[in-house]
Design the sequence.
């Protein structure tokens, strides 16, 4: 399969932040490994969005003894802390828009579309297809992709440009299947004509 990138395509890079990198507060295995690939994709797309988890210090998802499986997490991506900054090698200057999410202490928000103007903004740029990458496949990437599809965009997961928490093991695969069942195309970066 080869997909040609058109002026109506947008790349959404989800949460490529220090706290989600290995050694970060909410580490995603190989989170740093995909930075060069995401940078390549950032250079290929006409419209580029970065999302970031941007929590207040008292966010409801934070727990002293987080289980992960019940969606309680160690404190992470607290606004204006080093852990919330993008990975230093991420070419964030290429972004056309940065979406901050999870900013309300009393509400969780995994998706970049939740309580934001992202869908409107994309429509304003005449975007028809969105390609989702980043961290974590089984949480914020999935939620963002499902909402993109729900908002009427043809939606693609670029699987090799994403990594997941995968707790319990197998959950990344299970969540990818849910995305497929929702009509999201699961592709490999080599399917994109990025020249
Ligand atoms: C995320 C768990 C909690 C993510 C954010 O970016 O996937 N996961 N907050
Ligand atoms: Zn979070």
Sequence:
């Amino acid at each position: 399969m080869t997909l040609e990138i058109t002026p109506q395509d947008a790349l959404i890079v989800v949460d490529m932040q220090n706290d989600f990198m290995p050694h970060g507060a909410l580490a995603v295995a190989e989170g740093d490994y995909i930075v060069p690939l995401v940078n390549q994709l950032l250079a290929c797309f006409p419209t580029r969005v970065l999302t970031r988890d941007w929590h207040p210090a008292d966010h409801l998802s934070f727990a002293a003894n987080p289980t992960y499986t019940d969606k309680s997490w160690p404190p992470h991506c607290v606004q204006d802390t080093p852990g919330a900054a993008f990975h230093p090698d991420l070419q964030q200057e290429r972004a056309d828009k940065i979406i901050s999410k999870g900013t309300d202490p009393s509400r969780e928000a995994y998706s970049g579309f939740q309580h934001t103007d992202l869908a409107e903004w994309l429509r304003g740029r005449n975007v028809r297809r969105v390609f989702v990458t980043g961290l974590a496949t089984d949480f914020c990437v999935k939620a963002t992709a499902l909402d993109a599809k729900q908002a009427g965009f043809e939606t693609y997961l670029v699987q090799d440009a994403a990594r997941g928490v995968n707790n319990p093991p197998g959950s990344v695969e299970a969540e990818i299947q849910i995305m497929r069942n929702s009509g999201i195309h699961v592709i490999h970066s080599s399917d994109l004509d990025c020249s």
In short: The pocket of zinc ion (ligand 2) is lined by residues 53, 55, 61, 76-77, 102 (CB under 6 Å). The chain has one domain: 3-193. Residues 137-150 form the longest helix (14 residues). The helical segments are 35-44, 118-124, 137-150, 171-181.
